[in-house]
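1st attempt posting a full record on here, be nice pls
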Amino acid sequence: MGVVVLVGAYYLVSFLKLKNDYSKNRICCGNATSTVETDFSGWKTYRNDEYGFEFKYPAFSNKQNIILSKESNGVDFLEIQYWDDKPSVFISTFGISIYRNKDLYFLDDWFRSKIDINNLLTSANVYEKKFLADGKFILVFKNSIPNDYLNKGGPLPYAFLISPNRNLVFGIGLPQEKDIFLSNGYNTKNKQNSLLESIFSTFKFIESEVDTSGWKIYKNEEYEFELKYPNDWVFVSKDNDRIVFYNQCGRGFPIIYDDFTAEYLEFLKSCGSFSVEIGRNLNSEKLSIKEWYDNFSKDADPYSVVSVAEEKVESVNSIKARLPFLGRESFLNYLSRGSDIFFLRYPTNYVYGQDIFPKILSSFKFIN
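the predicted structure (as tokens):
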């Protein structure tokens, strides 16, 4: 199995080589998963086309007012107010802070640079990483806030969520006055926290339609597959069994695929890439992709895989894993054809073309 990893799963090996350095001063831990099950019937939907998101919230009272306050400090505040309209009496509220992430930091980097400047929260493990059932990655409150931070920074949201293109970060929390939540069955801190996670789980980000009619077609005659990629993208190939498609983002330099320089890593973080790698004869027994993956993953580091699911790619069965790569996260689809295994990788978070990578994946197909 060790030979298989070295030859075929280039991405896993690359991650493991860099894992120790990246883990220093990071927010723990990447494998926590929310198991909250919520009945959303009766919930209402708030949509904001300007910022490009929508979410559901519970209708705890006869009347709700939603107020968006735009502030000059880069933090806007969305307040959901609950009123009793007979008579019109204010009952309670909860809020979502909207932080404008102009530097397009990833969530943990943004947290450390904007919220935890002195590293007090990270050192005390105040927040942990968690993945919601739909795959969203959030930071959630875990341990008490150190007094040194409270004296300088004040209270904090329970959880943070970042948009796919990283231009916005959302922080959600409950007010001190919680009577309306208590009277609706959220009478413990765990239940109240679960409610907030459920609201975050309903977040949807509004994506523009992608027109692929003018895209280029890449065809690989040796391995008999093709895919479509944007007209202004380029690709590089290594030995015809590792092909990288990428947006140059105006930088105009080619990827040196085996050279993990600081410039290359920063390029991948900001622009991203869609990669196809072929592991020759890795499936010599010609197992189904699920059987092959089950055998392949037995020796995997449990921290190297965040989630695994089965997915169709152009009617072909695949295994889709969410896992770290170069200190970030990527989706990796495993497909089998004959005795070969195909590895299709693209990032979970990226700046340029947040809705393009799934379109590339959906265009992949075997030919002949």
